[in-house]
C-alpha cells in the first residue's frame, strides 16, 4: 500500500497538449506506430512505479494469451505476470484520465470510434519474455491500439527486454525476420501501435522490467448489447 504522506498528490489530469496529440494522430495515420520519449510528468511515473512495487506477488497472476486468458496459459509463449488496473490508486486514476483524453483526442482526429481503455501492470522477472504475437486476431478482441508505458528505472542495454516491433502484416510481411524497430523499455517511454497490424515480441529480460500495457478498444455491440469491458 502507498503509505507515503510526504508525496505531492498526483495531478488529477496531466495535460495532453494538442500538438502532442496531433503528432500521435499523424504518426498513427502515416506509420501505424509511434514511440514517445517522455510523454508523462516524472511525478506521475514515480507514483505508478511506487504503487506497482507496493503490490504483493500474490496480487499478480500469470499472464495468459489473448482474451480467454485462463484457458491459454502457456509459459513457453510468455512468462510475465500481470495485475489489471482500476481507479483505486490516485496515480493510476490520473493515468487513466490522461488515456481518456487521448482516447477522445484520437477519436476526434482519426474517427476510430475507440470505446474504452483497459490496462494492466506487467512484471517481467529475469529470464522472462513474450514471444512474437499479435494483440488482436480477426478483430475478435476489439483491440485497436496497443499502448505500453515503460517504468524500469535506469534501464541499460545489458538489461534486455526490448520490444521488437515487426513490419505490418497488412503489407504482406508475415514472415519478416527483421524488426521494424526495437523499443528500449526506458523509464517513461511509451509506444503506441495498431494492435491487429504489428507482430511484436519482448526480448529476454535480464533484470526485472516494469510496464503498463493497455489497449484502446472498440465496442462490438450487437442488437444494443454493450460489449463488457472485461
Ligand atoms: O511490454 C511490452 O513491450 C509489450 C507487451 C505485450 O506485447 C503484451 O502484453 O501484449
Ligand atoms: Fe502484445
Automatic annotation (TrEMBL):
GO terms for biological process: cellular response to hypoxia. This is 2OG-Fe(II) oxygenase superfamily protein. Pfam families: 2OG-FeII_Oxy_3. Its cofactor is L-ascorbate. It comes from Microbulbifer aggregans. Residues 110-218 form the Fe2OG dioxygenase domain. Keywords: Dioxygenase, Iron, Metal-binding, Oxidoreductase, Vitamin C. InterPro entries: HIF_prolyl_hydroxylases (IPR051559), Oxoglu/Fe-dep_dioxygenase_dom (IPR005123), Pro_4_hyd_alph (IPR006620), Pro_4_hyd_alph_FE2OG_OXY (IPR044862). One of its GO terms (molecular function) is L-ascorbic acid binding.
Amino acid at each position: 500500500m502507498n503509505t507515503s504522506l510526504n508525496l505531492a498528490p498526483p495531478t488529477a489530469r496531466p495535460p495532453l497538449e494538442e500538438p502532442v496529440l496531433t503528432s500521435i494522430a499523424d504518426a498513427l495515420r502515416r506509420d501505424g506506430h509511434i514511440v514517445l520519449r517522455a510523454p508523462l510528468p516524472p511525478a506521475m511515473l514515480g507514483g505508478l512505479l511506487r504503487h506497482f512495487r507496493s503490490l504483493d506477488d500474490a496480487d499478480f497472476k500469470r499472464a495468459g494469451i489473448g482474451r480467454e486468458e485462463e484457458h491459454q496459459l502457456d509459459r513457453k509463449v510468455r512468462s510475465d505476470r500481470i495485475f489489471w488496473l482500476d481507479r483505486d490508486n490516485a496515480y493510476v486514476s490520473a493515468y487513466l484520465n490522461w488515456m481518456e483524453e487521448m482516447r477522445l483526442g484520437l477519436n476526434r482526429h482519426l474517427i476510430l470510434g475507440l470505446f474504452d481503455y483497459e490496462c494492466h501492470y506487467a512484471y517481467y522477472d529475469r529470464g522472462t519474455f513474450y514471444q512474437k504475437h499479435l494483440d488482436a486476431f480477426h478483430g475478435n478482441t476489439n483491440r485497436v491500439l496497443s499502448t505500453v508505458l515503460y517504468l524500469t528505472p535506469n534501464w541499460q542495454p545489458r538489461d534486455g527486454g526490448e520490444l521488437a516491433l515487426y513490419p505490418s502484416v497488412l503489407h504482406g510481411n508475415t514472415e519478416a525476420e527483421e524488426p521494424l524497430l526495437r523499443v528500449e523499455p526506458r523509464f517513461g517511454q511509451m509506444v503506441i501501435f495498431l494492435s491487429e497490424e504489428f507482430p511484436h515480441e519482448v526480448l529476454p529480460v535480464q533484470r526485472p522490467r516494469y510496464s503498463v500495457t493497455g489497449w484502446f478498444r472498440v465496442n462490438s455491440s450487437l442488437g444494443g448489447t454493450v460489449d463488457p469491458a472485461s
